[in-house]
Amino acid sequence: MNQDIIIPAIDVQTPDRLNFIIEELACEASMVKVGMELYYSFGEKILDDLSEKELKIFLDLKLHDIPNTVGKSCKALGKLGIQMLNVHAAGGADMMSAANESFKSENEKAKLIAVTQLTSTSQKMLNEQLLIPGTILDCVLRYAELAKKSGLDGVVCSAMEAPYIKKELGPDFLCITPGIRPSGADHNDQKRVMTPQQAMANGSDYLVIGRAITEATSPKKAFQDITQSLSQGI
User: In this predicted structure, what is the pLDDT of residue 189?
Assistant: First the structure.
């Protein structure tokens, strides 16, 4: 099993815990996710620190604003040497196109992906709070279609939606799936979750796994246990 597909989400705020997790995962993971909590706590320097450990970076800032603002922001972020960045598909096709053009002008080989619906979003929340009609799958597929037409490389989605996206948009359109919980793990605030094995069977290209790894006594062992279970198909 290619361990590169597992992206630990190292969202912490204290230097001691951060350094411990990095040391534990530096020889295991290929790419890590830097989310808002980590980026806003430590700033741009964290990207340099991770790069020095030869870790690839998925910068998860979920940009969502007018096309001009997002485009200029993506141009700036494209200069930071990251390997993956995301925007919110809800920003629309013009915003995503501006983001893609600007980001790729600075970092041609990096991947730009769009968030469809957060894995904490339930059907009831989608309809009653966000006032979006239809099913979550309908919304996710529409956002994924817009993302592909806008030139993006893939989407962030639940593993539940991954097979439908692959069927509609092709096998090369990436599905990055958070909300991954090993069997028996607490779902926390996530609503649409799957185990790593289920997610892989559904066609996920990358599994974003946070607390199950980063809150473990040994993140290294937690990472190894997940990769081993995937290799053994259990």
Answer: 53
Q: Are strands 31-35 and 84-88 parallel, antiparallel or unpaired?
A: unpaired
Domain with 21, as residue range(s), is 3-232
For 129, the token pair is 């709070």
Give tens-digit pLDDT for 70-123.
999 999 999 999 999 999 999 999 999 999 999 999 999 999 999 999 988 999
| 93-106 vs 136-149: helix crossing angle, rounded to 10 | 50
- Domain CATH for 76: 3.20.20.70
**Rounded Cα–Cα distance for residues 5 and 75 (Å):** 26
- Residue 184 neighbours by CB distance under 10 Å: 7
Q: Could you give the residue numbers annotated as active site?
A: 62
**CA-to-CA separations, 192 to 121, 156, 160, 181, 189, in angstroms, rounded:** 8, 13, 7, 10, 10
